[in-house]
Amino acid sequence: MQFILALSGVIPAIVLMAVMARFDAKRPEPKTPLYLATALGGLSTIPVIFIQLGLEKFNPGGYSGALYTAFGVAALTEECAKAAVLYFVVWRSTAFDERLDGIVYATRAGLGFALVENVGYLMGSESMPGFFGTFVVRAVLAVPGHAIYAGFMGYWAARKKFDNVGPGLLGGLGIAIFLHGAYDAALFLIGVLAKQGGLAVLLVFPLIAVPIVVVVGGYRRLKKHAEEALRLDDVTHAPRPQPRLPFGLGFVLR
What we know:
The protein is mainly alpha-helical. It contains ten helices and no strands. 38% of the residues are buried.
């Protein structure tokens, strides 16, 4: 029964995939590479889990341990997995022929990862209140966050490929790791502070705002990037004006 309930964790990712598909409705991507990016994004959770378990053995604990887990264990491994999907699935594909495609395929990989991860978190819920709390928080913040972080690397990868502008895939990966790490660091530090007790607990309240700022601010910025990519793609695909011929010559040449 718990597994069936946990499967509801796929809903937020599927909804966001539909939202992204509507944004890309003008020149939609072929289904096969979209499904492949989503599936491999989800499957990438398996090696990531084992790598994270190995890295956690070196966790120093305390505040530095929270930062280590956030940036070095979670953000680094998960965003690298999404970048690998983007690079090996679509980088050389003929389907990757527009700037917006970078965001489309990267967010698909991110949402595939988030879909599987979300079901796993919901499987670990020990009570119904805990289940619903986890579902809501992750649906509003964590799942969109995975898409947003990946979206930045997809955008900059595409801008570098088509316009030779910006930091490219590696720079976008750095941005994704920073945003993801900041999100997780706030949550992990809250856990450490809660255990400390005393006045340290007061620092919990400003840290609560960090994940919200990261996701909301990241969404607003990525939306602007997507609009810019779409505008540039429209210019690229716009029909070129035909040269005007002298009066009467056009009729003769028909």
